Amino acid sequence: MAPPTSVKHKLVATYNEPEPKRKTLAQRAGEPNSIAAVSVGSRPTVKGTTLVGAAASNIRNPSLTSSMSSRHPSTLSRHTSNSSFSSSVGPGLRPKSAYGSRPQTSLAFNKSTLGRPISKSGSRPATSMAHHYDEEEDEDMPTQGRRKGTQPFNTLPSSFQSSQEYSTLPVQKSRGRQSACAPQTLLSTMRDVSVSTAMSKLRIDDGAQKFQLNGHQAMSNKVKLLSTPGSSQKASISTRIRNSRIGSTESALVLFQASRDSSVAPKTPSYIPVLSKSETMTNTPATPLRTSKACPSTNNFLTKSSNIPGLTDWDVDNRLEEMDSICMKIKDHISGSNIEREHFEEALGIFKSRIAELETLRSQLLAKNETLESDLEASRQRTDALQERLLNKTTEFDDQFRAHRHELDECRRAYRDETDQLRRELTDGADRLSRVHRDEVRELERRATVDVEDRLRELERKHDAKLDEERGRRLREVQSLEIQIAAERQKLDLAVQKKEIENQNMREELEDVKGDLAREQTLKNEALRNLAEFKAEIQENRAQSSSTIHSLEGTISSLSARIHFLESGSKAQSDSFADMEARLQQAVKSAEESKKKLIKEETLRRILFNQVQELKGNIRVMCRVRPVFSEKAEGEVARLTFPDNESESKELEILGREERSSLGTVSRKTHSFTFDRVFGPHSQNQEVFEEISQLVQSALDGYNVCIFCYGQTGSGKTHTMSSEDGMIPRATHQIYETATSLKEKGWEYAMEGSFIEVYNEEIHDLLGSSKDFDKKKHEIKHDEQRKQTVVTGLRSAALDSPDTVESILRHAAANRSVAATKSNERSSRSHSVFILKLVGQNRITGETSEGTLNLVDLAGSERLKQSGAEGDRMKETQSINKSLSCLGDVIAALGQGREGAHIPYRNSKLTYLLQYSLGGNSKTLMFVMASPLEEHLSETLTSLKFATKVHNTHIGTAKKTTKMRDRGDA
Ligand SMILES: Nc1ncnc2c1ncn2[C@@H]1O[C@H](COP(=O)(O)OP(=O)(O)OP(=O)(O)O)[C@@H](O)[C@H]1O
Predict the structure, then answer these.
(1) Which of 19, 184, 673, 790 has the fewest CB neighbours in a 10 Å radius?
(2) What 3-state DSSP class applies to 347?
(3) CA–CA separation, 930 vs 944, rounded Å?
(4) Is the CB of 719 under 6 A from ligand 1?
């Protein structure tokens, strides 16, 4: 295998390094005639042509010079030698021409000198050698030349042969010039065994590398031989040494050395010699070869032993001269050979030194190799250590990874627990807030109740004191007390409303707190999302997990602090809310108690009112003036004035028509009227009902109450009495509510309503069918004992709910409207009476009461003369006027106050129907309705004058129909 180029270059650089082992062998050889050192550029100067040739070839053997002279110019030239050397030094194979040139030359010389017959004789060593060589020349050399690449040492036999011939030179030389052929043979032998020839056969072969020299390269070849392995070669060398009788000591030694060192010759490429300074000598031009003229008679030369038949004798003198010249040449050749030997020795020294250098290089390389191996081992150890460390690090990393994952799991579990704890805390906080708020509301109600109770106690004391006084005072004092009670009630209502507002505010605050809690919940959710994101970041970046955890813990702690802060704030709000709620409950409770007190007060007030009514008389008259809807449509408005306070008016002044006296003066009389109350055109039904509510209430107390409206047509009777907010609906509602409230006192009332009309002195059931108006006859019957009136055949409706009243009124209005279509303006032509019978029983006291409330809407009072009615209208008007006149007569009779006097109730259906509601133990209220129109002025004045008569009538003291039952009977 070819060595690496780098190594080869290095070897070139270290070629001159000494080799101790080689040096020792050289010393052992004990070579005194060492070859003179040959240096590049210091070509030795040799006298003579041979010497010049030797010098030119640096190390060429002098014998070679002679042999070269007989060599064929074409096969042996300096140039060829140089080429051969160059080829041998180079990495390529040795060229065939270079290898075969010298043997061919030798062979040519042998052939030229000895001829074929001589070479075939085989009697002389030289001849045999020549023959042998000839055979090799003819057969082997080309083969060797071909094989030298694979078997470079197969060339040794040739060189060895030359060596043998060379070794015989001293023997022949000692014989002297015994035969003519001896010198020739000697020359041939010397040439063959010359160092140059021997060196030319030697080579340093290292695999594909071959090193072959010509001339002075022989020494190099010997050196090459040192590295030539193979026992057969050593044997050949030993044989040659034995065969060389006097041989050159140096050659013997070199061969011996080669034989010895061949066994230890390094096989590594480092022993491939590389051209150095000495090698450059091979590049020097070789000495011109001698031609065959140097021995012109060689072809005819015969020795004494030549016994070849057919050959003739030759000229002795010429031969002698030739021999002399040959001898001289031999001498020169010998001297040149000595010089050449010195050169070889010198070259040998150089090569030894180079060998030493190579050895040194080898040792260095070995050392370096060892170093490299040690480095490699160290590197391997380091690699193992690194692998072990890597394994340890991997294990450690896995452990850390597991520990970190475990830590992350712990953190995740801790966060989950903390989140659950926060959620529980929030839930608990919300529950606490709710409880606290409820407590606050209770406390607020309690406080409000206490306050109201205190106020009520104080008020009760005031009222008790006032009630003690009121019993001895008049009606105005009672009214003032009522006003105060109403004011207190209003205050209480305001207080309750205020408490309710406060409660509402507290609820709003609670809602705000809940909103804050919801926002906190949102923040908490955001924090949880941030926590999840932080967890994701922790997983992504484990190195930052600890810092992220700390930051997350900080966020959680801040959130916890904020939650605590909000809880504390909401707790305060909850406290205040609970306080307000408690106060509210207290206020509600106090309001209920106040309501109870008010009921008691109301009872007392009714008692007082009845007492006042008894003191004042049982018939009261109130006046109401309807508003003007349109002056253009209704005409001129009469001049009605209210001299006293309009809100509490009791007086009415009407400017009468112009009256022309007999003297022609025109005057207008002012008519002044005074009633229990005068309602102006701006008054409402609510205001009117407040005035009569106490009277209506008397029906529950067992009184017969009759409220009727009197006035001309279109003055507002029906509006006041039967409209949606008129006295009938309001009275029934109030009675129902009062009856319900009196249940607390044990009173149970049975309320039954009926609605009739008196038309043309006939009674029609408005709750029945309108078809029966003219068919069904109803009779009026009186119960003298019970002082109750009963109309037969009437349908009545139990007032078990306020809605019943509305249904009754709607039904009655529908019947009246149907009737109106038959007889025009039926409603104005008939008296309508709503009868409400109230029968009460107190299950506690055993009292019973039976009262009747009659709400009467009288027909319009018109003067027949003014109305111009005819036919049925006239009959209606007459009937109306009759009944109204009878009413006036009855009232007038009652006003006379005579005991047992006749009261003409039977004169009309109306008065007979109202027998027990007019006078006696009844309470009567008459509304006189006035029209504001100038057109109706006359009729208005008539009505007002009639009302004045009634107002001036003292009917007597009303008595309620109550009985005390024996408890035992009950
Ligand atoms: N105080 C009032 N406020 C407003 N409108 C009123 C008032 N009084 C009467 N009216 C209206 O005047 C008109 C006539 O009233 P209403 O029918 O009650 O008179 P009347 O006296 O009942 O007549 P009639 O005797 O023919 O029944 C109605 O439209 C009624 O609404």
Answers:
(1) 790
(2) helix
(3) 8
(4) yes
Q: How many residues does the chain have?
A: 970
What number does the ligand 1 atom closest to the CA of 624 have? 1
- Quickly tell me which residue has 């007979």 as its tokens: 912
Side chain identity, residue 558? S
Hey, what amino acid is at 689?
F
Q: Cα separations (Å) of 18 from 267, 360, 363?
A: 18, 6, 11
Most informative mutation of 623, 626, 867 for ligand 1 (most atoms within 8 A of CB): 626
ipTM at complex level: 0.97
Q: How far is CA 46 from CA 55, 181, 622, in A?
A: 6, 28, 186
What percentage of the chain reaches a pLDDT higher than 90? Answer: 2
Most confident of 10-14, 174-178, 569-573, 862-866: 569-573
* Predicted structure pTM score: 0.44
DSSP 766: T
What is the rounded distance in angstroms from the CA atom of residue 152 to the CA atom of residue 171? 31
Strands of 137-242 (E only): list them. Answer: 203-206, 209-212
71-88 burial: b if 16+ Cβ within 10 Å, else e: bbeebbbbebbbbbbbbb
Task: Kindly state if the Cβ of 685 falls inside 6 Å of ligand 1.
Answer: no
Q: Among 555, 554, 523, 549, which Cα is nearest to 537's?
A: 549
Q: Is the minimum distance from the CB of 91 to ligand 1 under 6 angstroms?
A: no
Ligand 1 atom having least distance to the Cα of 857: 22
Half-sphere exposure of 880 (CA within 13 A, CB side): 28
Q: What is the CA 650 to chain-centroid distance, rounded?
A: 84
pLDDT band (50, 70, 90) for residue 684: very high
Ligand 1 contact via 714 beta carbon (within 6 Å): yes
Please name the amino acid found at residue 798.
Answer: A
Give all domains of the chain, ordered by start, each with its CATH number.
Answer: 23-305 (no CATH), 414-616 (no CATH), 619-964 (3.40.850.10)
936 Cβ inside 6 Å of ligand 1: no
The tens digit of pLDDT for each residue in 124-133 reads 444 434 344 4
Residue 825 CA, ligand 1 centroid: distance in Å? 13
For residue 819, give the H/E element and its range. Answer: helix 802-822
Q: Is 626 in the pocket of ligand 1 (CB under 6 A)?
A: yes
Is 711 annotated in a binding site? The answer is yes
**Contact partners, residue 479, CB within 8 Å, separation at least 6:** none
Residue 104 neighbours by CB under 8 Å, 6+ apart: 72, 75, 76, 137, 141
Task: Verify whether ligand 1 is closer than 6 Å to residue 713 (CB atom).
Answer: yes
Average pLDDT in the 485-497 region? Answer: 79
Local structure of 494: helix, strand or coil = helix
Strands 922-930 and 619-625: parallel
Both tokens assigned to 852: 């009747």
Q: Which residue, judged by its Cα, is nearest atom 1 of ligand 1?
A: 626
Pocket test for ligand 1, best of 622, 684, 709, 719 (most atoms within 8 A of CB): 719
Sequence-ordered list of residues with C-beta below 8 angstroms from that of 275, at least 6 positions apart, any chain = 12, 15, 89
Cβ neighbourhood burial of 618 (10 Å; 0-12, 13-18, 19+): buried
Query: If you take atom 9 of ligand 1, which residue's CA is the nearest one?
Result: 716
Residues paired with residue 203 on neighbouring β-strands, in sequence order: 212
For 703-754, the pLDDT digits (tens) are: 888 898 988 888 888 899 888 888 988 988 888 888 888 888 788 888 888 9
Q: β-strands 922-930, 704-711: how paired?
A: parallel
Q: Does residue 83 contact residue 77 with C-beta atoms inside 8 Å?
A: no
Sequence-distant (6+) residues with CB within 8 A of 729 are: 805, 806, 809
Give the closest residue to 787 by CA, choosing from 854, 699, 850, 707: 850
828 touches ligand 1 (CB under 6 Å):
yes
Question: CA-to-CA distance for 111 and 132, rounded, in angstroms?
Answer: 12
pLDDT digit string, tens, across residues 566-589 = 777 767 777 877 888 888 888 888
